[in-house]
Amino acid sequence: MLAAYASAVNPEDPFAALSVGEIEPPDVPEDWTRVPVVAASLNHHDLWSLAGVGLRADQCPMILGTDAVGRTASGHHVVVYPVIGDASLDDETLDPKRTLLSEHYPGTLAESVAVPARNLVPAPQGWTAAEAACLPTAFLTAWRMLTTRGRLPAEGAVLVQGTGGGVATAAIVLAKALGARVYATGRDPERREKAAAIGAEPVEAGGRLPERVDIVIDSVGAPVMEHSIKSLKPGGRLVNCGVTAGPVAEVDMRHVFFKQLEILGSTMGTRDELLEVIRFCAERELKPVIDSTFTLADAESALRRLHSGEAFGKVVVTVE
Asked: How big is the CA angle at 248 (ends 247 and 252), to the nearest 5 degrees?
């Protein structure tokens, strides 16, 4: 089958490790279900895998991709829940052995993907396959950050750092629909204008906000840490799900203890949370922001678009 996969890992030149071509469908547990992939969305996780972050050379070839929409034998679209963990736990993301597709098991950037049957959930009515493929990482992660981890209060205020990425754009759309006042930083006027178009009040990177916020949603990391901490009101929460611009940050602990702040990590979400955000989006008629769409055969161009840092919203790959 056609797939985009890491044939090796290469920290110096990740794209040298990328292959797009025919590959034998990998072995998976016998009790799993295989579905044809209709559309898949990209994440920085895919680029990190090519660079050897979370993926070892001896695991290659490894099909990339965590997010997808598949088609069942009856013709219905299903969203692939990408977390493989202990389903008996209340929160499978806390399973110490949990993994994502494309880490230990083949991913979604292929003509088909295999997962446990419980990892297939109905796609929202009225969404295209490309739109629904944006749900598993971007919308699920943003939803958990705002609700379970961030505990967004009624009529609260949210700062989204580094607008433009999939999680950031999803957080703006969701927070606005939850009734929050939403601020979003952007490194240039064009990105700030696009953030305003989807409901945020734009702020220059590092700029002063009109008010201190209840929650900061951060996937950037080190460069925005100081600004995030200073932007929180007493008792506020900084929720981080990634470090696209650097993992090692300095924290002025005086702000943390004096204002009684919380710094929280968040990774993906549970299957139940995925169902919650799908229902919420359907009820509020929300849709994801899609930057661009490519065919699976042109997956390298899609990954390069993501790598460029110029995308605003999700980069999607279609298989049909």
From this structure: 130
What is residue 121's predicted lDDT score, i.e. its pLDDT? 97
- Which pLDDT tens digit goes with each residue over 35-84? 999 999 999 999 999 999 999 999 999 999 999 999 999 999 999 999 99
Sign of the four-CA dihedral 45, 217, 149, 238: positive
Query: CA 110, CA 33: separation in Å to the nearest integer?
Result: 15
H or E segment to which residue 166 belongs: helix 166-177
Question: Do residues 97 and 105 touch, judged by C-beta distance below 8 A?
Answer: no
- Let me know: does 65 contact 46? Beta carbons within 8 Å: yes
Structure tokens at 275: 């169902």
Q: Roughly how many angstroms between the first and final C-alpha of the chain, as a whole number?
A: 13
**Which DSSP letter does residue 138 get?**
I
- Whole-Å CA distances, 39 to 68, 176, 289, 317: 6, 27, 15, 6
